[in-house]
Design a protein that fits this description.
- The structure is a single chain.
- The protein has 241 residues and is an all-alpha fold.
- The protein has 10 helices and no strands.
- It has one domain.
- The radius of gyration is 17 Å and the shape is globular.
């Protein structure tokens, strides 16, 4: 458990650090942050989607015969959660739609990220590392988005910085700390099911969350960034085989 736990916790702490950097950049270098966040989103999406299909999904299928069902469940669970936040909370409470309500959604999402680190590193160090590459990169634009939502919700710069850090950065290592002791003790088929659920969630983050966000703010070389993420993921997976 020692090596797997330390690497999982290290990855989640790195994710929190990258989120914090995103918050700092958008506060102090707003123009640069707004200009380049699309590239980070596209690159991270390329890595997450490719790693999921090329390594995490096949690995989960080896570990659990019913993994395809869990894969679908993971994707749909994250989709329905985001739809619930949008339709049943934001639309019915427009005054809080920009600010605290999205903050709760982002906080939950970041907590789940920490759980994903626990699951993937419990499977193997390699599975955890290839997953972490894309996940850590997607934390940068997430920090920016969280801060911007709070500013638009009427919070001061100082309060927006603190709340964004607590919700988007601190929750990721917290999720790992809480979940790893339990996940490291479960049997292989159950771990395979959880890995498949994680893969569904990662595909959702890459294909349904990051890419549409990037398309709303198109940049000249966004496709290059996406292809770069795909090539990096393919290279890492092939180097293992």
């Amino acid at each position: 458990m020692g090596a797997h736990f330390s690497t999982a916790l290290g990855a989640s702490l790195l994710a929190g650090l990258v989120t914090t950097i995103g918050i700092y950049v958008i506060r102090h270098f707003e123009e640069w942050g707004q200009k380049n966040t699309t590239y980070f989103s596209c690159f991270a999406a390329g890595v997450l989607i490719s790693v999921s299909f090329l390594h995490i999904i096949p690995k989960s299928f080896e570990m659990n015969a019913h993994a395809p069902w869990y894969l679908l469940g993971g994707y749909l669970a994250l989709h329905f959660f985001n739809r619930f936040i949008t339709v049943f909370v934001c639309d019915k409470n427009p005054d809080s739609a920009i600010g605290l309500v999205p903050l709760l959604g982002i906080g939950f999402h970041s907590l789940i990220d920490g759980v994903v680190y626990s699951i993937t590193f419990s499977v193997s160090i390699f599975t955890g590392v290839v997953t972490a590459i894309g996940m850590v990169l997607h934390e940068f634009p997430e920090g920016i988005v969280t801060y911007v939502l709070l500013i638009r919700g009427g919070f001061s710069q100082r309060r927006s910085t603190i709340l964004a850090f607590l919700a988007a950065a601190l929750t990721t290592p917290l999720g790992t700390l809480i979940s790893f002791p339990m996940i490291s003790q479960i049997e292989k088929p159950v771990l395979g099911a959880m890995l498949s659920v994680s893969a569904g969630a990662l595909v959702y983050v890459g294909a349904t969350h990051l890419l549409p966000h990037a398309e709303h703010e198109p940049r000249k070389y966004s496709l290059v960034a996406l292809l770069g993420g795909i090539l990096v993921a393919v290279g890492i997976v092939l180097s293992k085989s």
